[in-house]
Each structure stands twice: as structure tokens, then as C-alpha cells.
Amino acid sequence: MTRATSTSRPTASAGSWHRFANPGRFLRISGHVYPWSLGLALLCLGVGLVWSLGLAPADYQQGDSVRIMYVHVPAAWMALFAYSLLAAAGASLLIWRHPLGGVAATAIAPVGAAFTFLALATGSLWGKPMWGTWWVWDARLTSVLILLFLYLGHMALTHAFENAERGRKAAAVLALAGVVNLPIIKFSVDWWNTLHQPASVTRIGTPAIHEAMLWPLLVMAGGFMFFFFAVVLLRMRAALAAQRAEALDRRIMLGR
Amino acid sequence: MNALAALLARDLRLALRQSGDVLLAVLFFILGAALFPFAVGPEPNLLLRIGPGLIWVMALLSVLLSLDRLFAPDHEDGTLDLLLLAPAPLEGIVLARILAHWLASGGPLILATPLLAVFFGVPTYALPVLLGSLLLGTLALSALGALGAALTLGARRAGVLVPLLVLPLYIPVLIFGAGAVDAVLTGLAARPHLLLLAAVLVLSLPLAALAGAAALRQAAE
């Protein structure tokens, strides 16, 4: 209770990145960033899809089914990245009471859940020809499934309260508690000796993947990243516009 | 510390007075597990194979069943507001509540476990590990459950929401708890599983205390 009164609103003169938490400034900046983000996403995805599905070499063991990797791996990266952002947005809402943090978390959660689902679905499609099964209870797969449930729980909790602010804060606490899962996902392939292969791109030293496959993979990852930012910015702008519309409605109803 | 002890004593006394709730959870635990021999057939080897994991899943679901009694009654009758104003740290209050919940719900489950062990033909030498893993694990279940219960305080359809939030967090407890018993039954050491289970417990207690206290503060705002 004492903590509730001791925090002051973040001021525009805070001098650090806090000033970007001002909704008005956010709308202005994001208005400039959004078209670029969307354009780069379309460019990267277009080039990346042609490169990875057409031009990149087939694997000498896996054949053409290796091309699933160009969707699967970026989707899995984005699932983790989106969750980190979700937790960071939640932290900014809880610690500094930035209202924009709550808006961002609400915007990120479904997108992150979609990437997680995409990673699981493409992994399943890839697993059938390679491992001979759609699903195994392997540590990596199980921990990513938990991640999907965390996203879904976050979404459900956000909308479970009459008071939207309370929903956002409760969901933020859940997002922060769920951060425990991120290192488990990352290191699951090292801690448990399982079917899923260990990291081959982000390991120390040279990647264990040939350049002819690494470059299209990175272009696809860039495309996924820009796409994510474009969608999240659009969702955040829409949420802010909806808030403003609601406030105007209320003012009209009060006759002012 | 005195305040927390008094709180613990109060919660236990309340649980004892409403012992019907506790009994119901234990009955659910036993009856639920007893359904499986009907479903998969009474073949002893099969029952022994699935028994430990099944007992664990049923213990987990029984704990889940009693989570709505953790904070909701206090929230409704205003006790929670007084607890928030109390000079004791809220994190400590949450811990005391977790401990009370564990003693009142996990304890009876552990007492009923030998009966289920007989049902599924779990050999006597595996029983200490089964009970030990439940002893460690149910405390972690109570802690993580308290987090879920605090987060959904005052939510619409909180009863449906709590399992969705809590079950993913329960999975590591289930893996290491059931894994310990499986290890003993296959002649391996249970120690690593129990140590990992203890690690999960050590991690979940402060997590539940801090996050649970934060959630309770929000609920009272």
C-alpha cells in the first residue's frame, strides 16, 4: 500500500529513454517508423522466401525438407524475443508505471503466441520426415509448449478483469514470473540429451551452418523481426486510438 | 515473526474447522486415481508403470482444487485489507499463507499416498522416495498456486483461469517429482531428481512470495 503512493509519474524531462513512454510522442515517432518497418518486412520476406525456398541448396541428408528451417528457426527466435519484450514491457508498467508498457504488452502477447505456434507447427511438420513422428516429449519441445501456454495465460489474464488496468498489471506479474522459462528453453538442448539438435548458429566461434544457408536464414529472421515490429506498432497505435475514442465518447455522453 | 506465527496458527485453525474441504480434496485424490485401473485395465505391471506418475498428477490436481480458498475468502470479507495494513511484510504473510496451505492440503495428501501406493502395487522400497518427492513437491505446488490465486483475485471466471496460469508452472515439479520415483523403480539413483525438485522449490518460494505480494497489492488497489 505504501508503495502505491510513493511513485510519481514519469516526466518528459527524465532525459533517458523514459521520454519515449509518452503516448503522444510514441504516436508521432511510431507513425514514422511503422511504414519503414512494414516495407522492410515485405522486402526481407520477399527476398528471403525466394532465396530460401528456391535458390538455397538442398541439404545432402535432409533434401528439400531442410527449407522448413527458414521459417521454423526465425519463428522460434521471435517467440523468445517477443517474450523478452513482453516481460520488459510488463516490468516498465510495474516499476515505472508507464501506461505505454501495458499497451505494449497487450499488443505483443498475441503476436508472440502466433510465432510460438508457428514454431511448434513447423517443427512438427519438420519432425515427421526427419524423426518419424509429429511430436516427441523432448525438453525443447515441452518448454516451448509451456511458453505457448504462458502467452495464452497472459492473454486470458489481461482480459479477465472489469478493470482493464488491473488485468494489465496482473498479466505483467505473470510475464515476469514466466521469464524463468526462457533460459530453460535456450539451454534445454544442452542440459538434456534429446532429439532436438543443439544450437548451430548462435554458438561461440563459427556457426555450424554453411554460409549458403546462413544468409537466407538471417534475411528471413530480419523479415520476421521487421514484421513483428510493424504488427506490434500497428496494434499499439490502434489500442491508443481506441482509448482516445472511448475518452471522447465518455466526454460526449457527459455533455461536455 | 510473532505476527506471522499467529497468522499461520489462525490459518491452520480455520482449515481445521472447515476440515470438510480438506477431506473432499483427499477423497478426490483417491477416487480420481482409482478410476484409472477401470480405464486401462487391472494388469499389475501396467499399473506399476503408470502408478507413480498418476499419483503425482492426482496430487497436483487436488492441490489445484483447493487454490480458490487461498486468498479469495479473505478478499471478500476484508481480511486482506487488514493484512495489507499489518506491520508485518506482505511477502512474509504470503509465505505464512503458503505454509498453512501446504500443511492443510499437501499434508493430508501425503498421508493418503501409501493407500494409493498399495492400489498401484508400488513396492515398499520406493515408498520413501514417493513420499519424499511429494513432501518437497507439494510445497512448491502450494507456492506456485498461491501466485496464481493472488493474480486472479477478483477476476471473472477465476476458477477457470487459475489452472491455465498455474499448470504450465507446475510442469517442472511434476517432471522431477515423478522422475524421482521412476528412477528408483528402474534401479537408478533418485537423488539427482530430488535435488532438482528441491531447486525448483527453492526458486518458487521467493518467486511466489515476491510476485504474490505484488499481485495482492494490485488486488487491493
Distance between the termini of chain B: 26 Å
Helix content of chain B: over 70%
Overall 3D shape of chain B: elongated
**H/E topology pattern of chain B:** HHHHHHHHH
CATH class of chain A: Mainly Alpha
Computed CA radius of gyration of chain A, to the nearest angstrom? 21 Å
Most strands sheet of chain A: none
Number of strands of chain B: 0
Strand composition percent of chain A: under 5%
Low-confidence stretches of chain B: none
Oligomerization: heterodimer
Count of separate structural domains of chain B = 1
Which structural class should the secondary elements of chain B be placed in? mainly alpha
Major sheet of chain B, described briefly?
none
Count the domains of chain A: 1
Strand percentage of chain B? under 5%
- The gyration radius over C-alpha positions of chain B equals 18 Å
Low-confidence regions of chain A: 1-15
Characterize the structure shown:
- The complex is a heterodimer of chains A (256) and B (221).
- With 256 residues, chain A is an all-alpha fold.
- Chain A is built from eight helices and no strands.
- In chain A, helix 5 runs antiparallel to helix 6 (164-177).
- The longest helix of chain A has 43 residues, at 211-253.
- In chain A, 38% of the residues are buried.
- Chain B has 221 residues and is an all-alpha fold.
- Chain B has one domain.
- In chain B, 84% of the residues lie in helices and 0% in strands.
- Chain B has helices spanning 2-17, 19-40, 44-65, 72-77, 79-85, 90-119, 127-151, 158-185, 191-220.
- Classes of the chains: A mainly alpha (256), B mainly alpha (221).
- The interface between A and B is medium-sized, with 26 and 28 residues.
